[in-house]
Amino acid sequence: MYLIMSMMFLIMTILMILMMMAFLISKKTFKDREKSSPFECGFDPKNSARLPFSIHFFLIALIFLIFDVEITLILPFIQSLKLTKIYMITFNLTLFIIILILGLYHEWNQGALNWSF
Predict the structure, then answer these.
(1) Which residues 6+ apart lie within 8 Å of 76 measured at CB?
(2) What's the structural domain count of the chain?
C-alpha cells in the first residue's frame, strides 16, 4: 500500500511540474485570444449568438458534405471489383457519377456555387 501511495505522489508531482513548466514556457499573445473564442466563421464573440448568417455559407458546407460522403461511397466500388463482374460495377459506378454530375449541374444553375458576394 505504501508503494502505491508513493508512486501516486511521485506521478502527481511530475505531472504538476510539467504543467507548471508548460504554463510558464508557453507564449501567449493577443492573437491567441481569438483562437480560444467559442465562435467560428467570422462571428464576433462579444455579440449575440443568434445573429443570422449567410445562407451561402450553409449551401457551400452542405455541398461539401454531399461530395465528402460521395467519396466514401465510391471507395467500396473499387474493392467490389475483385468480387463481382466488372460490367455490373462499371454500370453502377457510372450511374452514380452521372447522378452526382447532374446534381452538381443543378446546384450550378441555381447559383449555389456563385462566389460573388
Answers:
(1) none
(2) 1
